[in-house]
Amino acid sequence: MKKIIITEKDLDDNEPPDEFICPYDGAPGSRALAHMCPECDTPHHKECWDENGGCTAFGCLGSPDIKDMQGGRIHAPISSSTDPESDSTLPSDEDSSWQSCLGWIFWLFIIYMVIKNCEG
């Protein structure tokens, strides 16, 4: 088996390569033109960053999905309309309360069925 020798030069070489592979589209890019995520320093093409709405690294706080979870918002498809009131893809407060109620009914029914099967 061949030995791997790590020298001090290897440990001191913190210079990143001039090119990177964008995690969004998988294409190479130049670090000089890259948009670096302010949270995790992952490089992206500027266009890819803008199209995704943030970082594409899994679990990064700069990710649009993580931002939405922290803000309590639902990640909905982007509409071509600039008026959020006219966007039918966004759930209304009324929809959310019905969904919550149906969720409770569903779980109560499941619990009832489990108890009923255990008793008899």
What do these coordinates show?
This protein has 120 residues and is mainly alpha-helical. The chain has two domains: 15-73, no CATH class; 92-120. It is built from four helices and four strands. The protein has helices at 8-12, 46-52, 64-71, 93-119; strands at residues 19-21, 28-30, 35-36, 43-44. The chain has a two-stranded antiparallel sheet with strand order 1-2. Strands 3-4 form a two-stranded antiparallel sheet. A hairpin with a 6-residue loop joins strand 3 and strand 4 (43-44). The longest helix has 27 residues, at 93-119. The model is unreliable at 73-81 (pLDDT under 50).
Number of domains: 2
| Relative strand content | 5-15%
Distance between the termini: 64 Å
**Backbone CA Rg:** 24 Å
Main sheet overview = 2 strands, antiparallel
- The helix/strand series, from N terminus to C terminus, equals HEEEEHHH
Structural class by helix and strand composition: mainly alpha
Tally of contiguous helical segments: 4
Would you tell me the overall average pLDDT?
76
User: Which consecutive residue ranges, at least 5 long each, have pLDDT under 50?
Assistant: 73-81
Would you count the extended β strands for me? 4
What form results from the Cα inertia axes? elongated
Residue share in helices? 25-40%
